[in-house]
Amino acid sequence: MFLSEAMNQTGTFFHLVPWAVLFPVLGLLINMAFGRRMGEKGVAAVAVTASGLSFVVAVLMWLSLRAQPAGATVPFLSWMTPVHIAWAFRVDTLSVTMMLVVSGVGTLIHLYAVGYMHYDVRYKGDPGRYARFFVFLNLFIAAMMILVTGDSYLMLFVGWEGVGLCSYLLISFWFEYDTKGNLSLANAKAGNKAFIANRIGDFGFLLGMFYMFSVFGTLNFGKVFSEAPTVAQTHPQAILVITLLLLLGVTGKSAQIPLYVWLPDAMAGPTPVSALIHAATMVTAGVYLIARSHVLYDLVPAAQHTVALVGALTALFAATIAVAQNDIKKVLAYSTISQLGFMVAAVGVGAYVAAMFHLIAHAFFKALLFLAAGSVIIALERAHHPLPEEGGHDAHHNDDPPDFDPQDMRFMGGLRKVIPITFWTYLIAGLTLAGIPPLAAFFSKDEIIADTKAAFPLVYWLLVLAAFLTAFYIGRQIFLVFFGKPRSHAAAHAKESPWTMTSVLVVLAALSALGGLLNWPHPYLAEWLGHTLGEVEAAGLNPLVAGTSATIAIVSFLLAWWVYGKRPLQSASQPDPLQRPLGWLFTAMQAKWWVDELYWAVVINPYIALCRIAAAFDVWVIDAIVNDTAWLTDFVGEKIARWQTGFVRNYALSVFVGVLLIFTYLLWR
Amino acid sequence: MVLTNYLLALSAVLFIIGVAGVLVRRNALVIYMAIELMLNAANLAFVAFAAEFGALDGQIAVFFVMTVAAAEVAVGLAILVTIFRTRKSVDIDTLHRLKG
Amino acid sequence: MDFLMNPLNLMTFFPLVGVAIILLIPRERKDAIRWVAVVTSLVSFFISLWMLSMFHAQNPNFQMVYDKIWMKTGGFEIHYAMGVDGLSILLVLLTTLLTPISIFSAWTAIEDRVKEFTIAFLVMEVGMLGVFLALDLFTFFVFWEFSLVPMYFIIGIWGGPRRTYSAIKFMLYTMVGSVLMLLAILWLGLSQGTFYLPDLLAKGVNLPLHLQSWLFLAFALAFAIKVPMWPLHSWLPDAHVEAPTAGSVILAGVLLKMGTYGFLRFNLSLFPQASVKYAVPIAVLAIIGIIYGAMVAYAQKDFKKLVAYTSVSHLGFVMLGLFALNPLGIEGGILQMINHGLSTGALFLIVGVIYERTHTRDLNAFGGLWKIMPIYGAFSIVVALSSMGLPGLNGFIGEFTILLGAFKSPVLGPVFTIFAATGIILAAVYILVMLQKVFMGPVKEKNLGLKDLNWREITVFAVLTLFIFWIGLHPAPFFNLMGPSVEKLAHGLQAAAVAMH
User: Fold this and answer.
1) Residue C225 within a domain
2) pLDDT digits over C200-221, tens only?
3) Residues from chain B contacting residue A644 (CB–CB below 8 Å)
């Protein structure tokens, strides 16, 4: 009844699409204004409802699109009138797919955060910040919705920077601490790093938009894409430059080489943030951007090759680092970078459906991995220093070392017995990531690898190698965390998380396991996205590639078991079993190949020095010239003032002499 | 014609006396009188030329000069009186504080 | 009576009514004085809204013109002439908005000589409005110099420890430029036979290009000092650091705009060919300003000095937009003037809030303030983000339009945009580091007892934030106001560019 009234005359809900943004905005406004007075339950209810309603809008769009697959453009409000760009929403299969993922996973993570943040704000000693967290989370949903539904590059850019802002705000959410909970600037600095790295990417995005506008005269998707073939004839270089500039934006947002460095540090944010923003949704925006711009990329193979190569190199590079990390979230962070590399490589070879497929699967299993990791961390945290309401007076009677870190896998072990739900969901997500059939990522990753094999062999080999490492590092993590015996007091006494958290884990586990059905055996997703992407790839399973990758995954996982599962670590201080056989290579991987240090030495420190020099130059040269001019005037005035003796008759005499001189001049002339 | 020449000569003599007075005397009051003398020398020249050429401009200029002179004397004397009250002297060589 | 029926005159001179009333109030009754000042400037603001309601946005010419002959001398008629068009209307509204806000913000900050302080502000409003509305070169110059004096006293009397030095520096530096401008005005008026701007515009300045160039440069020097453009900016940090908060707000918010407005109204309008000729050097200086200002701002330890240097950077964007010489760039430039007035004005208020509470501006003395002053933190972050050009807030709209204008400019081009756009990365660097030092990190012990904003401060920030969002989300009304006038100006500039080649 209500639904039929909400339909417009064409029988669709397309005109409701602005509500996907407006609901979260309303939610955040309410929580901002009344959050402190409503209490945790009220805040949570508002935030979850807002996000949930956004999901409902997305579902309505999906229903409408089934009737009218061509979609619609919904104008909302005039905006940048000088360049004739309005706030307008684009509903098509691509944007609605993203909407469903963002608001769906987003709502689940909202739910999870209701429980998680209850503990987190108490451990950090500032319960008042509960409402602020949900304000930011709702803001993120709104910004992400703008990003995926915008009808122009400019509107996409608004969402693009908006999610960057949320990412910044949430990374530095506990701005007075570091990741271990000591008073520090570390989290704030991690936020800055993320924002600035993203800004460097956005610099490329902006220039790309400027160039695009000067060539196409518009930034509107429809117009740009329809004119692209013509422009490709008249300005062959233009599209190449535009696509490469957009790629710079992608490397920032989707954490690709060379701008990926911010994502590992972004793990400073609370775990739901890592799951939602830095794994499932925001970081995939770059993939979405390229998929959205597929018309442009298809026109310039050189740009496509660059994209594919960047993606594949990132996939492998990040995977090597993930192998050697000890922080449970850092492993997942590098894993995310690596998986994003897979997606970027896929869009680079034109396999847009495969990329979107992997994007969706990744949203499920990586969100789950992070949330489960969050559950592990909270479990350890609760055992390490229980809250007063849970018998916290025992807090100081545990025998954990002073450098105990609830995120360090060396202090874990044997957790499968104490937190079984977390363990099983983690295992499912981990096996999905590894690409073990028949879980979702097996199909999606397989499609990517199959597509690259034909298109770009170098990328294919890089990805295969990365896939091998993927199964290994996730295997390593699972065995280190859940198997063996507990390596700390906290690990031995960990408690399972509350149902608000674990129920989300179970839902996501189901989605991870069954997500493959989206595009296999019947290619629903390919058909669905074909309405927008204009092509339907052969989605059939290539038995040879599928067999190879499944074998690689299983062998690699078994290898991880052989190294870490067969003879588990005995204590937290024992060196990593890989340290001896790999030697300096392991050290380099553990040190993240010293890329951060390189950037500091080559870019950041010189910039800081240059700023100091400029500041000194300002005082000692520019301002000094001004002051010296004033001083010179003063000095000359001082000297000339001596003529002013104070004796009136001197003045009279000089007047007289002056008169005489003038007369002499007049007479002699 | 001849009269004008005499008048101009007188004017020049008066002016020189005035200049000498300003340069030589130390009493501020006397210097004032010397200044007046110069002004009136100029006035004399003005009227002389006015009579010579039958033009009114010179006569008008004289009125301006007289007005200015009156104003100057009014202000100047007031200043002098004040100075005399405070310093018991109008010797201008003792008034040399205003210098660079 | 005729004089006062014109909204422009009424708006400009209404603050003097407040001055008269304040003169009658005994100086002990400080709150009464403050209320009179606020209400008077608010009335001026409402008169400016009345003016806005009578303004025809489609008309590119001067409107509500009031033109009377002021004096006749030597065969010249000097007019008292006021009028408003699309180039000036937003700046007028900005002035009438920021004046009550800054008086309001100084409620508790200024306790000493309140009477003189409020009078100085009201008198300054007269001068500032006159500058933006004057249609006669002579009238303009009178208002231009007039607006200088109250600011000199505001810095010199209510300023910090080095107030005398800063006030004199501000005054003398500005005067150096004004002298040359006066010469140029005289030359222009004498050679063209009139000082009345609409006449000059209608006929076009009829001088050989080399003479036009000299006049252009003379005007440009005066305005460049006021903007301030690199390397003539060094009076600005001193003036800002010493000025009281309300003075800084007006200085950054309005007085600097007099420089950019001057470029727009006189240099671009009167000397289109010289503008084309000097567009590249000026754009280069603007870009140096953008990058240099951002870098020096990063290295500052004094909160207020940091904000002062950001002005150098932001006004570089404005200048770049104006000298793109196309509608996009100029519209962006004008909007960015407004944006800078709102954002930087608000940033100075933010500095003022914390200075009033802690009596220090050392960036290292703060930390974690968001935790103890959440409302203050929230407003500050919005303002800071607006200043660094986050899309959805006002700064982005201006910067995007300017950069796009420069990219497509007939005289500049992509290279200028590339260099200028690095400014948005550098802006992120200094803004984020500022936020980190002040609002994030552990709280210092001595700051634990700080009080959050009171209702008066919240009102001020709420108004500014409202505009920050309005321009960011729906700038169309603002662009519509200036559009036709800018089109007209750009048309003349394009014709000149064609003639030059």
Assistant:
1) no
2) 888 877 788 888 899 999 999 9
3) 98-100
